[in-house]
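From: lab user (bench 3)
To: helpdesk
Subject: output format question, protein + beta-D-galactopyranuronic acid

Hello, I'm new to running complex predictions and I'm not sure whether the block I got back is the full result or only part of it. Here's what I submitted:
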Amino acid sequence: MTILFKPSYLLMILIGIIFSSNLIAQEQFNYDESKVPALVLPDPFVSTKGEIINSIEEWESTRRPELLQAFADEMYGQLPKDFDKITFQEEVIASHPYAGFSSYKLVQIGVSRNGKTQTIPLHLFSPKVGRGPFPVVLLISHRKVEHLINDKEDKFFDIQQITQRGYVAAIFDVEYVSPDDKDRFSDGILTSLYPEQMQLPNGMRGLGAWAWGAMRAMDYFEQEPLIDHTKSAVVGHSRGGKAALWCGANDIRWAITYSNESGCGGAALSRRKFGETVERINTAFPYWFTDNFDFFNGNEEKLPFDQHQLIASIAPRGVYIASAMEDLWADPKGEYLSLKLASQVYQQLYDEKTDLPEDYVFAPHFHHSGSLGYHLRAGQHNLTGEDWEKFLDFADNQFGNLSKKESR
Ligand code: GTR
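Helpdesk reply: Thanks, we reran it on our side. This is the complete output you should expect:
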């Protein structure tokens, strides 16, 4: 008996210590709106040389490229585009949990550069109803794909809803591009294909590699007759949502970019310092961003940009930001403000009539307005069936797919 009691007693003490130290750690972060500093944000419409940007031409030839360059140099690292060869090896998998209404194909994407090859498995579920070509949503996943496919209760990758609404559901695990691990992140393309990036202070790191991986999936979509790649969306949750924004901003082949609860380093404005901060993210996840980003630890005001300008760089294509009420760590209000500020570029340059409200309401709500979408849902940090439902509603509108939803 004593032997049995001792470990559980110790365990309780241990849990107590972990719980209280976690509380202390959380208390160091600001969750009080009144403590958010007055925001002085860099202007999307003024170039680094001080020129006023008045036209689509000036935005696309000057401002957008210089913003993307600054984000690459200081935050996400370079995004190499060159490789020697890409191949797609397909295998149809007949037996799977969604076989009643969906076909499963596993595609091995092989990318070669300088005599080395990286292989990335891409999983595709396509609707059995309808003939296609189908629109596609790609999820950048840092969770194990095998689990997501086999656990039908987990809607993180909602295969049933996505395919039954007439979309191809595609997913890859970042493990095969750059493992989501401090000690192993360079084991993927940063060793096999782009080793020189590791030597550069503005070199590619984890998040950039994941964005690169999504771009290779798009290379596959472009040549696959089952897929209408002009109706494509890249989706990421949290860390994946940061990578999705970086991907969507750089690669104009994506019609919609979805960034779910991406917070610091994603949709949230860094200068608000609400919830996770630049210093905290660089300390906990030093392998996500380029080395230069460390300079901004506790120094957010010195950033030559803020995250609204990353979202604006996606214009005029679709952008959707989502937040959850219990996810203060990701700063829901900061995520919304970024989108709202980015909407100025859609309105003033691209003449879009977006009408995202001025004031942020901290209650469940959504706005789908032209190319821009937002929702705040009740509950915790996660990607859920409810999020997918809103995402697909927005995509239906963008792609004129309303009939598919109605005929379900
Ligand atoms: C947290 C991290 C966030 C977010 C999240 C996630 O630990 O601080 O930036 O990316 O993980 O990916 O779920």
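A quick orientation on your result: Strands lie at 85-93, 102-113, 116-127, 134-141, 168-173, 227-237, 256-260, 318-324, 365-369, 372-377. Let us know if anything else is unclear.
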